[in-house]
Design a protein that fits this description.
The protein has 14 helices and 17 strands. With 398 residues, it is α/β, with parallel strands linked by helices. The structure holds pyridoxal-5'-phosphate.
Length: 398
């Protein structure tokens, strides 16, 4: 018989009762170091007192009023996000896929209002992940996710990642823009080269296209800057954020320049829940922490120290790992052994990880993770690697 909870996930048989910082405690008392962070989402870890207090206080005042009225928490959040980024205006929604859908709507609307209604197509990349709605499945382009769900939504093409010639060759009279993850997450923690991001910016300028960025996973401080594109010294025209934005409370956002946002007049887009007082209180509390002086510098420093340990891990266990990739605290360990086996060994050692494509083990700890906890994670990874060694190598390692 089908479970009452629709079985769309292969869940681990683990129930967490509470959490504390980077740690989760299971119902049976076992403690796990959480380097999955609910898929790069629990940015402040678990039970963060400032986030908990902000949510409790707002819940006691008013949770939801709809966008028929002014919402001071949303106005304040939008002002803080625009002050901290390239953007002039922000739309709030409830998830990553919804933010990406809205972003594509903004790109098409801007083109239509600039007298180019024929420009509606978006160039996407192989290995991308943009979400599970019908249109974002087509933007994702992964045949495995599309199968059985009818014809692809029109308007998306895919070219190899980090390949400028392929991008330029794909540009046509119907192209509205380009959609890129500065660091591909689900696709295997594959970073765009900084030069590629700069080249995408100049290509968009050359052809009058819009540059859209999906920073749902790599944004909100994860790379050690508020948004990952900042490392390249360029800005997009429009960008999506979600996952870590409200520390685990569901929220998405579309950030845009005035050029793109000014056409989104009353009635052009909407969301019942989007930007409600509770979500915005959570996101404002997250910003209080990650925009505090020194916080992102510390994320960067913690990431760099963690990478040193991981480089050593890969050198010590070439039978298990072949590469460290990503940026800051969005890290992929490319596995030689089957990723599922390595993840199971990590779990047995008390370390939670997430899988990613290309046989990659994903490590995305809360941004508040301590240096000592990263060292503990590296030790757990080394013990997990020893469990995965082919038996001959295991004897040699002893
Ligand atoms: C998770 C993710 C999405 C989809 O977000 P949902 O909140 O699951 O809809 C889109 N793009 C990227 C890069 C993501 O990591």
């Amino acid at each position: 018989m089908i479970p009452a909870l629709m079985p769309t996930y292969n869940r681990a048989d683990l129930v967490f009762e509470r959490g504390e910082g980077a740690w989760l405690v299971a119902a049976d008392g076992r403690r796990f170091l959480d380097f999955g962070a609910g898929i790069a989402t629990s940015s402040l870890g678990h039970g963060h007192p400032h986030l908990v207090a902000a949510i409790a206080a707002q819940a006691g005042k008013v949770m939801h009023v709809s966008n028929l009225y002014r919402i001071p928490e949303a106005e304040r959040l939008a002002e803080r996000l625009t002050a901290a980024t390239f953007a002039d205006s922000v739309f709030f929604c409830n998830s990553g896929a919804e933010a990406n859908e809205g972003m594509v709507k903004l790109m098409r609307k801007a083109m239509a209002e600039e007298d180019h209604p024929e420009r509606y197509r978006v160039i996407c990349f192989e290995g991308a992940f943009h979400g599970r709605t019908l249109a974002m499945l087509s933007a994702t382009g992964n045949a495995k996710y599309l199968k059985g769900f009818g014809p692809r939504v029109d308007g998306f093409e895919h070219v190899p990642f980090n390949n400028l010639n392929a991008v330029r060759a794909a540009i046509g009279p119907e192209t509205a823009g380009i959609l890129v993850e500065p660091v591909q997450g689900e696709g295997g923690i594959r970073p765009a080269s900084l030069q590629f991001l700069r080249d995408l910016r100049s290509t968009c300028d050359e052809f009058g296209l819009l540059l859209g960025m999906d920073e749902i996973q790599c944004g909100m401080g994860r790379t050690g800057k508020l948004f990952a594109h900042e490392w390249a010294g360029i800005t997009p025209d429009v960008m999506s954020a979600a996952k870590g934005i409200a520390g685990g409370f569901p929220m998405g956002a579309i950030l845009a320049t005035e050029r793109v946002a000014r056409h989104m007049t009353p009635g052009t887009h909407g969301s019942t829940f989007g930007g409600n007082p509770l979500a915005c209180a959570a996101a404002n509390a997250v910003l209080d922490i990650i925009l505090a002086p020194g916080f992102l510098t510390e994320v960067d420093r913690t990431g760099r120290r963690f990478w040193r340990d991981l480089d050593r891990l890969v050198a010590d266990y070439p039978e298990v790992f072949s590469e460290v990739r990503g940026a800051g605290l969005i890290v992929g360990l490319k596995c030689v052994a089957p990723q599922g086996e390595v993840a199971a060994a990590c779990l047995a050692e008390g370390l939670l990880t997430v899988n990613a494509a290309e046989n990659v083990l994903r490590l995305v700890p809360p941004l508040i993770v301590r240096e000592s906890e990263c060292r503990t994670a590296a030790e757990m990874l080394a013990r997990a690697a020893r469990r995965c060694l082919p038996s001959k190598a295991k004897v040699a390692a002893k």
